[in-house]
């Protein structure tokens, strides 16, 4: 970590996005995580994705639980409200926030301890409900902040830094998210910004429960030989199903790959995801196929990355609840209170 | 057969129905209570039910009380014994000279009765079976048939019951006429075969007035609608589930856009109480009015979040419909046993605002007020109901609302204020009341954002582990709690006719029993000044009340006299002067109990009742 305060000035020629914001407008406080932490790369990718999408920074609500990953919302989007809530409870806090104001973008940041152990239930139920959010798990297979205990995503047989072998089965959050009905499911690697940035951008544009599991090596406690979440291990075992670009209408990205391996997915809001398929027969609209594909590769010790499943016509919780378009937090007594006449009528019916 | 004179009473007796859970008796029993109200005679009904859906014993007790005593009385003057499982206990519970009403289709051995009561046998099953063939109809109409028989025995006006049936089955003519038919089957049988009326009688009166008959949970839920709650997250738990169910029903009626049909509310049944309170905290953080309803076990689960609400200063409303604890306790029995658990919920130094409504009318008012208080104080507000208020119909004054009232959204800094250059420190006390300004997420592109956290931070919401910064914040939170004292409902005081050194403090559902007990105690010559506490933190008048009396009885429905503990703790009072009067068997406290307990203590103090001293 660095102890030098971040300077506020920036180069006048810094590139601006459609809204006139520079990259710097999407940054936050300086990270206090260990130098080289995978989480900081994810932070950089979130900044990049928001800049690319020309999101107004203050229209994002960043919500997290407790742990190293949950500290990161302080390090991006400094003009957004952030909420570092309770361990494992980010999903419920995010759900409530989303119900209060459907007009903001909700970014849930969590870790493997936060989402696969203490918060496994809340992870599952927020996905089930189809909360419109981007749920990112920064997955390092280890409890970093408490110095290196195994988490529930640590693979069976993997070794801790102290040399202890994990004997418990691992939870694959991607497999669970698919089963629970997430309408956007992806996995990536913190060290692969080319893949991760468009995935985050597409997830933000997706209307519904988007889930991204990002393998993020813990350089302090889980980057040694015997770990299955180290930089070296993930690089060697990564099997990407696709690469994607997000096209939001302006400035179309040149499609520089061979026809026949590109699939364009149009999302609900009109944005397009162009999938450069590496695995020729991979269909990201087939939930069952994705589950099988994932399981088959897991058996071979391969970590599948890319966009595994997307339902472009997804509905979210607000649609299920049929709530008004106006954010609930802006409604006042004139629309919410039935008034004294209605009460008199009710009183009369209770006699 | 009776060697004790049958009880003779007009408009003042207790009828208890012993039924089997799930037999459809509830609606007939409730109709019985409502019918008496229509005679202008107050009633106070209570459900005594098991934590079960079908097959276990359940009772419905109706206290008929021209005097308007709405607390439980104790004792049973007439038992409608419809449950063979509990027969022996039910028969044993009848007051000497009381009445036993039963289904005489099958003969019962004489050992199953008592000599000192009047036994009334009506062949309900025989009447039902000769009229109906469908098993479900037989079960349901049997209840209406006994209602008909009772109407004759108690001299009730059948027209008033027919009117009620008419209102209940409006538009369902077939059901309406078949219910009226069943009513008259029972009534006619009783008139032809029994001596009607009995010594217990209903006589038309005018003591109900404009009062309404409503359950506390429904009233509290309506208070949430009027108070502007838009987000409700809950997890089913007895006796609180009917709050969320009533909120759903009220919202369906009042909160849909007439043009689009869309909902101006969101209700989520959480996966547990942790998620429920998490959703409430998230929604409130984002500027919506949100609440949850739960009971003791749910409070235990929510405590971590309650601490966050206190420390990060996020509004929340929790309705706690208390039941007997600890642990699973007695889920369907009433108590006031979460006072300490709620007042000091969560680890670390915390204090929370509690509101104690006495009946559904106050539950409505306090529920609505809770949202103003939560946003004004930016903390959790507990609405402390209990099963006795929540799940029973209670006669209370009509609900009132002032249309001029606007919601108090508290200290919220807007984009305009930020643009004017106002200094925004999320935890900065600008005017000495301990309450800082907050901003809603998404307010301003460059100003007013902050990072909410449960960790220590400075006045500008920056992370800090400096001892002085932490202490500064904790002291401000104390100032805020002192501010709350003057915002919450004040205690109500009523003095005895003559000056007295003795006082009594009580709260919540104890209220009607206490009012009645005062009459009983006065009759014995004991004079007591009364104070009904309606909120925590305690108003300064509580300390004054304590200072003005040598002994103060604290009447409550828990074992450990929790309110007394709280008073002692918060006021630094000599505990000896606060005498605990506790009732905690899960049944509602009665006037008889209170009067005896206080009377005995007064006798123990060798207080000579004034009347005796004079005579």
Largest sheet of chain A: 8 strands, mixed
Helical residue percent of chain A? Answer: 25-40%
Q: For the residues shown, what is the average pLDDT of chain B?
A: 96
Helix content of chain B: 25-40%
CA-CA gap between termini of chain B: 42 Å
Instruction: Output the structural class of chain B.
Output: alpha/beta
Q: Assign an overall shape of chain A.
A: globular
Largest interface: A-B, 62 and 73 residues
Multimeric state of these chains?
Answer: heterodimer
Strand order of the largest sheet of chain B: 11-10-12-13-15-14-21
| Helical stretch tally of chain B | 20
Average pLDDT reading of chain A:
90
Share of residues in strands of chain A: 15-25%
Give the strand tally of chain B.
Answer: 23
Helices and strands of chain A, in order, run as HEHEHEHHEEEHEHEHEEEEHEHHH
Give the structural class of chain A.
alpha/beta
Largest sheet of chain B: 7 strands, mixed
Strand-residue proportion of chain B: 15-25%
Distance between the termini of chain A: 70 Å
How many helices of chain A? Answer: 12
The neighbouring-strand order within the major sheet of chain A is: 2-1-3-4-8-7-13-9
